[in-house]
Design goal:
Subcellular location: Chromosome; Nucleus
Keywords: Cell cycle, Cell division, Chromosome, DNA condensation, Mitosis, Nucleus
Radius of gyration: 49 Å
Strand order of the largest sheet: 1-2
Pfam family, one: Cnd1_N
Largest sheet: 2 strands, antiparallel
Family: Belongs to the CND1 (condensin subunit 1) family.
GO molecular function, one term: histone binding
Helix content: over 70%
Shape: elongated
Length: about 1400
């Protein structure tokens, strides 16, 4: 019988001779010293022995030593030798395994064994056990050696003739065979070898340890066969052989260590449970995770993440097992690690979706499991309010997954919807994203139907409620009245009832009722009764229950639709979010809401149009994709109808956005030619039922498309003129204005055709003149139409100045009847009465229109001059560029070449620059002549300018005619934009009107005009900067909004420097109007992106100015918090620390101290910034007396401790101690000063009173003598009332000096200071007055009455006795260490009275 084999800890341990008779290596062969031929012969000999002898030959000492030597030197073997050795060991081991199983089937009796000289059964078992362990040990060692990379032969041993054999070595194949063989060995029944006990622990431990070491190689796990074998090995050891706790510990260790293992370990545990029908390994893992300290997960975030993913994967594979033991993990919800909470939320989601599908067992077991499911759902609802945003987001994601799995009941559907709607306002962006995705999923998988209009649900619900009342039994109806009717409030109170009613009606989801659909309200979703039983059929319990279920479903659906409709205002806000994901997912949700016809979704989608101007490409792509999906990806007619309705219903801002996106889509080809053709059909009334408004909308969209493709309009020029200026223009007045826009956007060749055409050209311009001079358009449309008509004249007409002059002359003649300009001025030179008479002779509307035409013609003429100058410059540049090319090519004649050379010489000498100067001079002169005229005199517009000026200065007149005032100021502003001198002369008038005009329209127009003037004449407007910022304080919202827009435009485009009045814009951050506040936030956000963030330099000045304003504390904090949040760079944050600390030095106002301290507390401190704060302590130490200032510094310290390193933490703690110490010292100094001032006032009043009381001293002494010696009466109590009267005015000082007293109102109504422990007569005072007898007190009183300068210290003490003691109470005064208290008060007084001496009052001790 061979020696027993024990698996060693290490391979080389077999070379050591053991104390017992176990098998070990006696003759080690050093394979590295053998020649290749010798090594090959050794391998062949071992292979021959293993194949020729039986499988137990491995126990023989010689074979064992040789195999050990080859295994130890496995890395030095050639590929063929390795393969032969592995195959020999593997084949013998595979033969051994069936023999082990046959031990129990072929028992050998002792007599037969003795007769045949065969080993006994015990010896056979021992040999099989030995062989099993030896083969397992050697194969496992080879496996580990090969995976560690030692399987490659060293380069020195590779010969050229054997390179081919090395290259053909395929270790993966051999590794898979070995692992499968080892797994089969463990799965073999080993009871014949070990009986009822498990194999030795060191054997199982060796196998498990080796398998786990292979799990640490991620490459191995990519091979499915190897992974499967390793799972079989560990699963068998951990489950079959009860090596559970150790296996679970190893699994958790590896999960903590490697982030790729959670899924593989979950597969392992699930395989073990499925193979052996034993969940002990999974239960051990769950128990071990439940026992873990929650703080460990906080420290090891990576490990927490891995453990969490393992739990989720395990729940997905073993939902029922995990659900029965989930209580072990629930306490981790109270831990600090959000990753574990996230994982538990995911676990709950998997369990709810999978663990409760088939509830088996009796009714009690079913009820128990359903209660468990309900508890999980409640926990998921609670976790929606988790403190961590990551967990809140994960919960919402889990709810979305449950909706996709249809695992959310109808009764719980609305509660989840309301929670998701509430999370739309979460402060975290990814929580909002998850909430939006959840709502999208809930709409997609909603159980209420494809159309969710509230009106349809309400009508249908009312109808079926009435049917339910009719179907209810009569007797039951008498008893319970409306008890059978399930109203909406009942459904809201207990959503669980909905599920029960649906289940009673044989319905789990409303979509399952559609076997025989019945329309319930027009286009809304169809509801019908299960199994096709008609509600109108015979009365029965089934019908009644089904109707109840249907009513309950309708109520739930109505609540769902209302909840989604109520989120529309929040979704509009999210469209304006600065976070791209908010905007993208909000658009997706709105698209889904529109698909299901949620109320308000269509209007909200319109508000996404301005987002096409977003600089974020993802937002633009989302808007463009939504626009194409909703409006364009239809049939041509439907797409054209969608676009024209958008154009009709949009405001000015939306029209600009619509124009941008339509022109872009036309350029890309997304709006096809068929859609354009359909739009022409709508415009030309070729579609039946088209209105004039729709025709105008179609032309508007065509004008937008023409911005990119101008040929669109040229093909229908005649239709544009006939329809746009024909009879339909009177039906739809805006059609004429749209037609003018179409004429402006004609291509150049079509414009030339229009002008050259005698019929159309003269007709068009005649119509435009009629449009300007006529009165057939309403007033509110005439101004916008004439504005476009004048612009069209200047764009299309070849000589627009001639036609414009004719237009102005016609308007002027119609108004004034050829009155001379001087006569016009004289009529308005008089007072308001004369002006009123003049205005009464002329219609106000006609005069207003005249001023508007003059102003707009002047402005267009200025633009026309600039356009001509640019054309000349462009032609000149083009000519200069073409000359050098012709010279180089030699295409010019000699004279032209000489001219080109002369031009080059002139350019070098700067002579060409004079041509540009001449052009600029001519342009300037032409611009000036518009208003000021030339030497010959004033022109038509110049004659009107004085009239406008005098009219606008006549305030009494314009107050009578607001419409005239608005038109006159608008014309004046346009003339001011043209001429600098005219602007300077009327600038003060403009600001006066902008501030004091009675109508908001005039103030708004003036504010907008100021922006244009600031661009045109920045030097003139620079001194008026403060007045421009003053428009931000206008009481009217529209004026403030325009002021914000104008200033934002000027500052962001570098047309105005950010002056010291930027605090006015900062105040708009907290404006009552939300739009103004959002515009201000947008301004500062854009300003922070310019250069190196100008807000960094502006912040201290803004802080100073806001501190001087009487702002509410919350308003100030909100403004500064937003501005500081725009500073992102650490270097700027550190610089702000230094700047703000330095501002403490020159500030004495407490309010400013608090503001600076608050700003410091809002900074994101770095280590360097914290050091600067500590170093600047002397700058702000004087402000530490204020509690609010110190509190802000404490907030800074608490935040700094979270990120500080150990060395910085000690500095912070030292700084905190220093801060607290200085705070207490400053508070004490402040209190001492207050007490000193208080006592000084008391002394002054007491001295006055003492002089008045000397005359009454004799009477008091006689009275005291008459009262006897048994009582001691304080003679100064009579003085107290008079002192009290003077003390009433100093009540605040008494409170601040810690002198407590009670105020009472006597019967006469006078206020008195009462000391409840002091009576009028105090017989006990003599006994308790330690160290002071009657005579000493009498001396003190007499010396007080006769006090002089030399006895001033004693007077101070008497003052304490007479004033302080009665107020505090003698008992409370003498019951403590009265000398110490008096000393404290004298120390306070010592600031004012330096001469007090205490030696005569009490001993030195």
């Amino acid at each position: 019988m061979a020696s027993p084999f024990t698996i060693p800890h290490n391979l080389v341990d077999l070379e050591e001779e053991p104390e017992d008779d176990r098998l070990f290596v006696r003759n080690l062969i050093q394979t590295q010293n053998l020649t290749p031929s010798g090594l090959d012969e050794l391998v062949k000999g071992v292979v021959f022995d293993l194949s020729d002898k039986d499988v137990f030959c491995i126990e023989e000492q010689e074979v064992f030593d040789q195999v050990y030597s080859l295994v130890k030197g496995f890395g030095h073997l050639e590929a063929s030798a390795r393969a032969n050795l592995i195959e020999s060991l593997r084949s013998n081991f595979s033969v051994l395994l069936p023999n082990i199983a046959s031990l129990s089937r072929t028992p050998v009796s002792p007599h037969e064994a003795q007769a045949e000289a065969e080993p006994s059964p015990h010896e056979r078992v021992a040999s099989h056990r030995n062989a099993l362990k030896i083969y397992t040990f050697f194969l496992q060692t080879i496996l580990l050696s090969g995976d560690s990379g030692s399987g490659n032969a060293p380069k020195g041993t590779q010969s050229k003739s054997k390179k081919h054999s090395v290259q053909t070595w395929n270790w993966e194949v051999h590794r898979g065979r070995i692992t499968h063989l080892l797994a089969s060995a463990l799965e073999t029944d080993l009871k014949p070898l070990y009986g009822m006990s498990d194999p030795e622990e060191n054997y199982i431990s060796f196998v498990v340890k080796s398998a786990f070491s292979m799990f640490e190689n991620n490459t191995l796990l990519k091979d499915p066969e190897t992974k499967d074998a390793l799972c079989r090995i560990i699963g068998a050891c951990g489950t079959k052989y009860h090596y559970t706790m150790q296996t679970a510990a190893s699994i958790l260790h590896l999960i903590h260590k490697h982030d790729y293992l959670p899924q593989h370990m979950a597969d392992l545990v699930a395989w073990a449970e499925k193979k052996y029908r034993d969940g002990s390994l999974a239960l051990a893992l769950i128990t071990e995770i439940g026992r873990m300290n929650t703080k460990d997960f906080t420290r090891d975030t990576a490990g927490a993440d891995n453990v969490g993913r393992f739990l989720v994967e395990l729940s997905d594979r073993l939902p029922k097992l995990v659900s029965t033991n989930i209580g072990i993990l629930v306490p981790h919800f109270g831990g600090e690690s959000y990753k574990i909470r996230n994982a538990l939320v995911g676990v709950f989601g998997k369990l709810i979706a999978k663990a409760f599908k088939d509830v088996e067992g009796d009714s009690a077991a079913k009820a128990h499991r359903l209660r468990g499911k309900q508890a999980m759902l409640e926990i998921l609802l609670e976790r929606c309010r988790d403190v961590s945003a990551y967990t809140r987001s994960r919960v919402l994601q889990v709810w979305a997954e449950l909706c996709e799995e249809r695992a959310v009941s109808i009764g719980l559907w609305n509660e989840v919807t309301e929670i998701a709607a509430g999370r739309l306002e979460d402060k975290s962006a990814f929580v909002r994203k998850s909430a939006l995705n959840l709502l999208i999923t809930m709409l997609q998988y909603n159980p209420f139907g494809p159309q969710l209009r509230t009106s349809s649900f309400e009508g249908t619900l009312e109808k079926y409620k009435q049917k339910l009342q009719e179907m209810a039994p009569a007797e039951h109806s008498e008893e319970s009245g409306q008890g059978e009717v399930i109203d909406e409030s009942t459904a809201h109170e207990d959503d669980g009832d909905v599920d029960s009613k649906l289940s009673n009606g044989g319905n789990g989801s409303i979509n399952q009722i559609d076997s025989q659909s019945q329309d319930i309200g027009g286009e809304s979703c169809s509801f019908s009764v299960h199994n096709g039983v008609s509600i109108e059929g015979p009365l029965g319990i089934a019908n009644l229950e089904q109707t109840r279920a249907l009513v309950a479903s309708l109520e739930a659906g109505l609540r769902f639709a209302k909840c989604l409709s109520s989120t529309m205002p929040t979704l509009v806000q999210l469209l304006a979010s600065s976070t791209a994901t908010d905007v993208e997912h909000t658009i997706l949700l709105l698209m889904r809401c529109r698909q299901f016809q949620i109320d308000g979704a269509e209007a909200c989608l319109r508000k996404m149009l301005p987002l096409v101007f977003s600089q974020d490409k993802s937002i633009y792509d989302a808007v463009e994709g939504a626009f194409i999906t909703i409006y364009v990806q239809k049939s041509a007619t439907e797409a054209a109808a969608n676009l024209l309705h958008l154009a009709i219903d949009s405001n000015i801002g939306d029209l600009a956005a619509l124009e941008f996106i339509v022109s872009t889509l036309v350029a890309k080809g997304d709006i096809s030619a068929s859609v354009i053709s359909a739009l022409w059909d709508f415009f030309c009334f070729n579609v039946s039922g088209v209105t004039a408004e729709q025709s105008r909308g179609a032309l508007s969209v065509l004008c937008m498309a023409a911005k990119t493709s101008t040929k669109i309009l040229g093909s229908h020029l005649q239709d544009i003129i006939d329809i746009g200026f024909g009879r339909w223009a009177k039906v739809e007045p805006l059609l004429a204005r749209t037609t003018c826009i179409a004429l402006e956007r004609l291509p150049d060749e079509d414009k030339q055709k229009l002008v050259s055409s005698c019929g159309n050209g003269s007709r068009v311009f005649s119509i435009l003149q009629t449009l300007i001079n006529g009165y057939w358009l309403p007033d509110h449309i005439w101004y916008s139409a004439v504005e476009k008509a004048i612009s069209t004249i200047y764009i299309v007409h070849p000589t627009p100045e001639v036609l414009a002059a004719e237009v102005v002359r016609q308007v002027q003649n119609a108004l004034f009847g050829c009155i001379a300009g001087e006569k016009e001025s004289s009529d308005l030179d008089g007072d308001g009465a004369n002006g009123g008479n003049f205005i009464s002779a002329v219609q106000v509307s006609t005069l207003s229109r005249y001023f508007f035409v003059v102003g707009h013609v002047a402005l267009n003429h200025l633009v026309y001059i600039e356009t001509c100058v640019k054309k000349i410059q462009k032609q000149k540049t083009k000519k200069e560029r073409s000359l050098p090319e012709d010279v180089q090519s030699g295409g010019m004649g000699a004279p032209l070449q000489v001219a080109a050379q002369d031009n080059n010489i002139n350019a070098e000498l700067g002579i060409n620059a004079s041509d540009d100067a001449k052009l600029d001079s001519l342009s300037e002169k032409a611009e000036k002549e518009i208003v000021s005229g030339n030497n010959a005199g004033k022109n038509l517009i110049g004659l009107c300018a004085p009239v406008l000026t005098k009219l606008c200065r006549n305030f009494s007149l314009v107050q009578k005619f607001p419409e005239l005032h608005a038109s006159g100021m608008l014309g004046l502003c346009k003339l001011m934009v043209i001429d600098a001198n005219f602007c300077e002369a009327n600038l003060q008038l403009l600001f006066t009107v902008a501030e004091s005009a009675p109508t908001e329209a005039v103030r708004s127009n003036c504010t907008i005009a100021l922006g244009d003037l600031a661009v045109r004449f920045p030097n003139l407007l620079e001194p008026w900067t403060e007045k421009m910022y003053g428009r931000l304080r206008d009481p009217i919202v529209s004026v403030r909004k325009n002021a914000v827009l104008v200033l934002s435009h000027l500052i962001l485009n570098d047309m105005m420097k950010v002056k010291g009045y930027i605090n006015e814009m900062a105040l708009c951050l907290e404006d009552m109007d939300e739009r103004i506040a959002n515009l201000a936030k947008l301004f500062f956000n854009e300003l922070s992106k310019k250069g190196s963030n100008p807000i960094y330099n502006l912040l201290p000045d803004i802080l100073s100015r806001l501190s001087n304003d009487n702002l509410e504390e919350q308003t100030f904090c909100n403004i500064m918090q937003y501005l500081i949040g725009l500073i992102k760079k650490d270097k700027q944050m550190e610089g702000l620390v230094e700047k703000l600390c330095n501002r403490f030095c020159g500030v004495t106002d407490i309010k400013q101290w608090e503001g600076i301290a608050y700003c410091l507390s809002q900074l994101a401190f770095t280590e360097k910034g914290m050091k600067k704060l500590i170093e600047s302590f002397k700058s702000y130490e004087h402000a530490l007396s204020e509690d609010s200032v110190v509190e802000h510094f404490r907030n800074i310290i608490s935040k700094a401790k979270k990120f500080s390193k150990p060395e910085l933490r000690s500095c912070i703690e030292e700084f905190e101690e220093k801060l607290n110490m200085f705070h207490m010292e400053k508070k004490e100094q402040e209190m001492t000063t207050k007490n000193a001032l208080f006592h000084q006032q008391k002394l002054e009043k007491f001295g006055n009173h003492t002089a008045r009381s000397e005359g009454f001293q004799g009477e008091e002494e006689e009275e005291n003598a008459s009262r006897g010696t048994g009582e001691v009466i304080d003679p100064h109590e009579e003085m107290i009332p008079s002192i009290r009267k003077s003390e009433v005015g100093n009540k605040e000082l008494e409170e601040s000096s810690n002198i407590s007293s009670e105020m009472e109102c006597s019967e006469t109504g006078n206020l008195e200071f009462q000391s409840p422990q002091v009576s009028q007569r105090r017989p006990s005072k003599t006994k308790r007055n330690v160290g002071m007898g009657m005579q000493e007190k009498e001396k003190a009183r007499s010396s007080t009455i006769r006090r002089t300068k030399s006895t001033k210290g004693l007077v101070d003490f008497v003052f304490i006795l007479l004033v302080y003691v009665p107020m505090r109470g003698v008992e409370s005064f003498l019951g403590r260490d009265w000398r110490g208290e008096v000393l404290n008060n004298f120390l306070c007084l010592n600031i004012l009275f330096k001469s007090i001496s205490f030696s005569h009052i009490w001993p030195e001790d």
